[in-house]
Design a protein that fits this description.
Helices cover 46% and strands 12% of the residues. It is α/β, with parallel strands linked by helices. Strands 3-2-1-4-6-5 form a 6-stranded mixed β-sheet. The longest helix is centred in the N-terminal third of the chain and has 17 residues. The protein starts with 6 loop residues before the first helix and ends in an 11-residue tail after the last helix. 27% of the residues are buried.
Length: 200
């Protein structure tokens, strides 16, 4: 079922289109400076998995405002290496406002008491462990920053710089970045690689 096109939803879509037009052609850093400091000041956060390429956006945001909320969704299914990498980046980049969100124990007890829901019903598992906690974490924000890129999947080919989703604006500053650009940024800024990258 498609979401109802309410006036508020249409206005949000228009705002996303306007922001995409205004910031089109600007660098990722320029997009972040504008959204963090002007368009959504105090109402924007970075959602980060602290995955293989996460250090790029985390570094950029930390150099603009280290107190911007960085939301980390801990599903309790992360590899220990990812959690150690998270702690390393927080310390190295001076990130000062990490908000860790987790699934509610009551929901896990009801829907995933044995911790194997991902193998039986991956959609419900994502809803319980990811969607519900993330919606709670985003309640105080109007905009969230993602690291999504067009080249990551065919389903993202038509993705735009700013998008309307539910009641939020999402901004994708690295929309056009290639793997080579990402690696060049890691090298130039001497950012540590995720320890699991070497293991494939």
């Amino acid at each position: 079922m498609l979401p109802l096109q309410t006036t508020a939803r249409l206005e949000l879509q228009d705002r996303a289109l306007g922001l995409t037009a205004r910031y089109g052609g600007k660098t990722a850093q320029e997009v972040l400076r504008g959204t963090l400091g002007t368009d959504f000041e105090g109402r924007i956060g970075l959602v980060s998995s602290f995955g293989a390429e996460a250090a790029v956006l985390l570094h950029m945001v930390s150099r603009i405002d280290p107190y911007v909320p960085v939301i980390f969704l801990d599903t309790w299914k992360h590899f220990p290496e990812t959690l150690r990498y998270r702690d390393q980046l927080i310390d190295q980049l001076g990130l000062a406002n990490i908000q860790t969100v987790t699934p509610r124990q009551a929901n896990l007890q009801a829907d995933d008491p044995d911790g194997d829901l991902h193998s039986r019903d991956p959609f419900l598992c994502c809803h319980v462990r990811k969607t519900q906690p993330m919606l709670k974490a985003l309640r105080s924000l109007d905009c969230w920053i993602t690291g999504r890129k067009r080249g990551q999947a065919s389903s993202r080919a038509n993705m735009t710089l700013f998008e309307a989703q539910d009641r939020w604006i999402k901004v994708n500053p690295l929309l056009e970045w290639t793997a080579a650009q990402t690696q060049a940024y890691f090298t130039a800024l001497d950012l540590p690689p995720h320890p699991l990258v070497a293991q494939g």
